[in-house]
C-alpha cells in the first residue's frame, strides 16, 4: 500500500512539475528559446506574494490576482524589448542573456529579502486531506495544484489547436519569416508567449511557496526539474510536458519509497536517473515530434 | 490606369552582398506583370523587398501612392500585398484548412473564403483536413496560392509557381489566374520559364544579375531580344557585358 500511496503522491507532485515546465515548454516550442531564469522567476513570484500578503494583509492565495498579471506583464515587456534581440538560429545569446537575468534576480532577492527561508501560509487548507484508506490520503492542496496544471496545459493546447491566435503561434513556430507574410507580427507573438510563460511559472512559484519554504537561491533547482519534465515529455509538446511532469513526480516519490525501504537512491536522484534514461533511449522525449 | 506598385531605383541584398541594383518597375492595377530571369538574377529578392522580408537599401517602393519604406512586413499584408513564396513554404504543423485560414490572419476584408478557394482549386476539397506535408507538389502549390488569396490581396506576388511541377499541373494552376484577377487582385508573376511568363503577362521585365535588362509589353517583345536579355549576351542589354560582376 505504501507503494500505491507513493505513486498517487507522485502523480500529484507531478502537477507542480508540469506547471513549472509549462512556460519552458511553450517558449522552446514556439521560439526555440531556453530561459535559464525560469526557476528564479518562480521564486521571485513567491517573494512578491510574501510582500503583497504582508502589506495588504491578505491570504497569499489572494495575492495571485496581483502577482500573476504583474509577472505576465513583465514577461511581455522583457521579451518585446529585451529577449527578442537574442532570438535567432543560434541559441547561445538567449542562454547568456537569461543566465544574466537569473543572476540579477537572485542577487536582488538576496538584497531585498536576505538569505532567510520564507514560506507562504494559506491556513488550514494546506493540510486538509481526504483519507481513502489508512495508507492513502490525498491532500486537497496537491489535488488543486494538479487540477490547475491540467487546466492550464489542456487550455493552452486547446488555444493552440483551435483559435486564430493559436494558429498564428504554430505558424510562427514553424517559420517566422513566412508567418510575417501572413500578417503575423512574430515579435508580438514571442512577447505573448513569454507573458504566458511568466504567468504560469508565477502560479507554480506560489504553489511551491505554499508547499515548502524557499530562499532566494532556490530557483536553479526548480529550473532543473522543469527542464527534466520538458525533456522527458518531449520538446515542444504540451501534452508531453504534463506527462513528463507526472513521470518525474512519480519517479521522485517512488525513489523516496525505495530509499525508505532499502536505503538506496533518493527521490530526486531517481528522477534524474529517469531523465537520463529517457534522454539516452528517446532523445526526442516520449511525445516529442522529432523534427526532421 | 494608375500605378498600383511603383518600385524606383531599388537596391537591396543580404549582408554585404548586393543582389539588386537600382531596379525600377511599375505594376498597373489590373495588369499582370511577369518578371523573368535566370537563376540568381534577383527575382526572389525583388519580391522579398516588396513584401518587406529583405530590407530596402536605397530607392523607394510605393504601393497605391504610399511609401512602404517604414511599413514592416506583417503590416504590408494589411495594405493588400501578399506573396506565394518560392518553394511554397506551407506550415507543416498546420493542416490544409489551417494553412488557408492563417493566410487570412490579418482579417483584411474581401471576397476570399476557404469555400471560394476550393471553388477555384476543386482538388483541395477532399484534402482540407490533411497535414500539408503529405500533399503532392501541385496540391501544395494550390494551397500556397489559396493561402495568399485568403489575405484578400490587391497585389499578389507569385514566385515560380511552376517550380518542380509537371507541365499539366502548371497549366491547371495558371488556369486559375483569370479567376484571381477577376476578384480584384493584380498579379506579379516570377517565372524562369519564358513561354509561361509571356502567355499570362501583359508586361514583362527581365532581370539579369540584379539589373533590369529588358522591359516592355509582352505582345511587343521580340523572342530573340528576350533570350539575349535573359542570358546576358550583350544584345540590347545594359548589364550583359559585365558577366560575373557582383
Ligand atoms: N539568403 C541569402 N543570403 C545571401 N545571398 C542570397 C540569399 N538569397 C539569395 N542570395 C543571392 O542573391 C542573388 C539573387 O538571388 P535570388 O534568389 O533573388 O535569385 P532568383 O532570381 O530568385 O533565382 P532563382 O531563379 O534561382 O530563384 C543570388 O546571387 C543569390 O545567391
Ligand atoms: Mg527565386
Overview in brief:
The complex is a heterodimer of chains A (292) and B (246). Chain A is built from eleven helices and two strands. With 292 residues, chain A is mainly alpha-helical.
Summarize the structure in words.
The complex is a heterodimer of chains A (292) and B (246). With 292 residues, chain A is mainly α. In chain A, 73% of the residues lie in helices and 2% in strands. The longest helix of chain A is centred in the first third of the chain and has 30 residues. Chain B is α/β, with parallel strands linked by helices and 246 residues long. Chain B has a single domain, classed as Rossmann fold (3-Layer(aba) Sandwich), CATH 3.40.50.300. In chain B, 30% of the residues lie in helices and 27% in strands. Chain B has nine helices and ten strands. In chain B, strands 6-7-8-3-9-10 form a six-stranded mixed beta sheet, sandwiched between helices. In chain B, strands 2-1-4-5 form a four-stranded antiparallel beta sheet, with helices on one face. The longest helix of chain B is centred in the middle third of the chain and has 13 residues. At the A-B interface, helix 6 and helix 7 of A face helix 2 and helix 3 of B. The site of magnesium ion (MG) has 5 residues of chain B, from helix 1.
